Amino acid sequence: MPDKRPRGYQPWWRPRPRTVELLVAVDRVLDRYAAQLPLTIRQVWYSLISDGVLVKEERTYKRLVEVLGMARRSGRIPWEALRDDTENTAVPVAYAGPADFHQALLEAARAFRLDRQAGQRVRLEV
């Protein structure tokens, strides 16, 4: 089933009244914790649960994720107000020996491509 959620910036997003109520509650949470920003979505969710706005169910968390995503992409909530604590692991580049290093260079050279749109006034994206 294709994902029909809108992507990219959504400056014309007009949330439903029930969603606006949720966003007003989120604004109160962000104001209350202004000194601790950025917050995670989970922190916002637990604050809304403790405020009695949401019940502690997986569906309310999923809805909050969707609503906050749209609110950020529409400019309703600043990007800097929320953070993602997903762990990113950096793996250092290492080689088994000179032959392995040489092979990696050859593969990088084969994969090299020029940006054919560099310098163009209009850039095509799909």
Structural account:
The chain is built from four helices and two strands, in the order H-E-H-H-E-H. The protein is mainly α and 126 residues long. The protein has a two-stranded parallel sheet with strand order 1-2. The longest helix has 17 residues. It starts with 16 loop residues before the first helix and ends in a 15-residue tail after the last helix. The model has no long low-confidence stretch (mean pLDDT 91).
TL;DR?
By secondary structure, the chain is mainly alpha-helical. It contains four helices and two strands; from the N terminus they run αβααβα.
Stretches with pLDDT under 50, minimum 5 residues:
none
Percentage beta strand: under 5%
* Span between termini: 20 Å
Coarse shape? elongated
Total helices: the number is: 4
Q: What would the average pLDDT be, to the nearest integer?
A: 91
Rg is 22 Å
Order of helices and strands: HEHHEH
Strand segment count: 2
What portion of residues is helical? 40-55%
